[in-house]
Amino acid sequence: MTSERKYNEVDGENEALSFDYYGDDDDFDTFTDGDCGSDEGVLGFSDPFSCEVKPRILLMGLRRSGKSSIQKVVFHKMSPNETLFLESTNKICREDVSNSSFVSFQIWDFPGQIDFFDPTFDYEMIFRGTGALIFVIDSQDDYVEALSRLHLTVTRAYKVNPDINFEVFIHKVDGLSDDRKIEKQRDIHKRANDDLADAGLERIHLSFYLTSIYDHSIFEAFSKVVQKLIPQLPTLENLLNIFISNSGIEKAFLFDVVSKIYIATDSSPVDMQTYELCCDMIDVVIDISCIYGLTGDEVGTPYDKESMAIIHLNNTTVMYLKEVTKFLALVCFLREESFERKGLIDYNFHCFKKAIEEVFDVRLKVQRSRKLLSQRRWSRQTVPNGTQVHPH
Ligand SMILES: Nc1nc2c(ncn2[C@@H]2O[C@H](COP(=O)(O)OP(=O)(O)OP(=O)(O)O)[C@@H](O)[C@H]2O)c(=O)[nH]1
């Protein structure tokens, strides 16, 4: 049994570490053209007590471009090879990802063949609550149709909600040489932007990423998409900068343990190899904890307050992982000589952790007061016997 499989099994039975996922596939909220608009309550946008409207990430693209695979690999630990057997999606799948207080959003996977602009399909309602629209283009296929679909989708979405972040995943690049990758990216970038310029919409900004589920590029790209939706990002980056500069650390990432999305890092540049090493370290820690960390009858999480790991690499670099919150881990890179001052690092880490908790606290307070406010508003509109009064 591979270590990846082991993790899958534990993940499946572990509430705290798994996503807030509405049942199995059959239980996904599904919307047909007819009932989408009327189902607002299910979407959580008209819920008067909803203390927080989660940013919504839409995954769109032509059929077989790889949308479901991306979702399954990043958020369900499916191994890339297993995606070969995924069936075509024929309904909109919505999933809540709220495994970490910072990473809290929804992903909507749209079936490729859906006629998105059918007049009975309320796309305005969908775009209005969207934080990021990921458009997946299959780089191994002819992308002319995908580009015209991208243009149509982006222009419509922008009209409804100009605040959406438009993210283009040039996907399945594993089959391409480095030169071909760059060439494709340049070509897609040029054509997509030319189309927008022809329509007088140069102000729409598209971000491009080269992705594949067969390496870490999909996690990296998703990290960047998610980071743009985290309002506390500058605060987190600042805290990380202060922490590393006072501890002799070279690079630090704040990771969401389950998805391996890094929600923040210090301001020095990220290189792919470092990121991959961090992902591998998290896998090792979770796998070992799953196998040896849980007692037989325990259903609890294999990741807790005690979770930490130190790995000495053969190039005099040390990797240091420590638990920050139930869902987040800090992974640092430092030189062996800096690690000699581990006491100092641990003390600084303690301060860093406290600061992160304060950021959480502020967020919770804001949420609570929002909830209270909306409850008050709601009760003002309701007379004592429970009948609703329509406000003038
Ligand atoms: N080589 C390669 N194949 C991929 C990658 N991502 C997905 N695939 C394959 O692409 C095929 C289609 O993937 P799906 O995830 O079902 O595509 P989809 O966009 O959800 O398709 P619909 O549900 O029909 O809209 C599957 O056989 C995947 O294994 C990738 O990064 N590289």
Mean pLDDT: 78
- Per CATH, the superfamily of the largest domain is P-loop containing nucleotide triphosphate hydrolases
Largest sheet: 6 strands, mixed
Q: From the 3D coordinates, which CATH architecture of the largest domain would you assign?
A: 3-Layer(aba) Sandwich
Please report the total strand number as a whole number. Answer: 11
Q: Determine and state the CATH class of the largest domain.
A: Alpha Beta
**CATH topology group of the largest domain:** Rossmann fold
Give the helices and strands as they follow along the chain.
HHEHEEHEHEHEHHEEHEEEHH
Strand neighbour order, sheet with most strands: 2-3-1-4-5-6
| Gyration radius from CA atoms, angstroms | 22 Å
Note the gap between the termini.
Answer: 65 Å
What hetero molecules are bound to the protein chains? guanosine-5'-triphosphate
Quaternary state of the chains = single chain
Estimate the helix proportion, in percent: 40-55%
Organism: Sinocyclocheilus anshuiensis
GO molecular function: GDP binding; GTP binding; GTPase activity; GTPase binding; molecular adaptor activity; protein heterodimerization activity
Catalytic activity: GTP + H2O = GDP + phosphate + H(+)
Function: Guanine nucleotide-binding protein that plays a crucial role in the cellular response to amino acid availability through regulation of the mTORC1 signaling cascade.
